[in-house]
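INFO batch 0412 | record 1 of 1 | parsing
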Amino acid sequence: PTSTQLHCQHEILFADTTASSGTFTSMPGLDDNNDRNDTDGPSLDLSSRRSGGTADVSRSPNDASRRQFLSQWLLSTVSLGSSFIPQSACAQDETSLQPYVKRADKFGYTFQPPLNFDAGNKPLKTHLDEINFKSLQQSGYQFGITVDPVRITSLQQFGTPEEVAAKVVLAEVNRDGVFDVTLMQDPQQGDFSLGGGGGGQYNYYQLNYLSQGKRGDKRFVTKFYIQNQFLYALTAQCKEVDYKTLASELLQAVDSFQVTI
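INFO prediction complete | emitting tokens
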């Protein structure tokens, strides 16, 4: 289907959680704008601009669980801007490049960072498990992974990819210093086979959006899993001016992020 471009004041747009098709409901005052020149190709350009007040991002019967999901996601993206304590003296080089593997009693995942990235943590821990990877060569280029327990058992309980995208955009635009948030590509969903064959199928959602504010224009790619009531969140970030150069490498790293338990 043809992608729809939506531009609105952030307090009057919300996802229609009763519609089986997962389409957006637009309230009076919504301005459809189809003249955006998107060099990344066709996309659902959900743009939300701050105009005062606070957006309500929880409008469903399962408010508590959905607020928890958004809260944990927001914390996962905030952690990218925090102080960074390296775990090692230097980043991996071509001869020692190995995937990062996390294995605990109840959760586990793997991630392959690009070359010349250093792994580290924030001084103050705010998640059950968290780690950041920062480029040693490109300012503002980084990845963050967090794991947190949640009440819901699947992403579908929170909403369709489009509904989740709407809530994430509305939550993002409420951040201090953020003026405008635009979803740059259609929300994605996918499955992977745990163990290659005979394993279970687990859904993930992936969002690609631009956040513009007083700290500059930043591109974010986020990937979510929910498995065994744990929310796994990967957030990739770079400066918008660098995105076209870094996109292939960044998206390859995002693809490598998988749940293993």
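INFO post-check: The two ends are 35 Å apart (CA to CA).
INFO record closed
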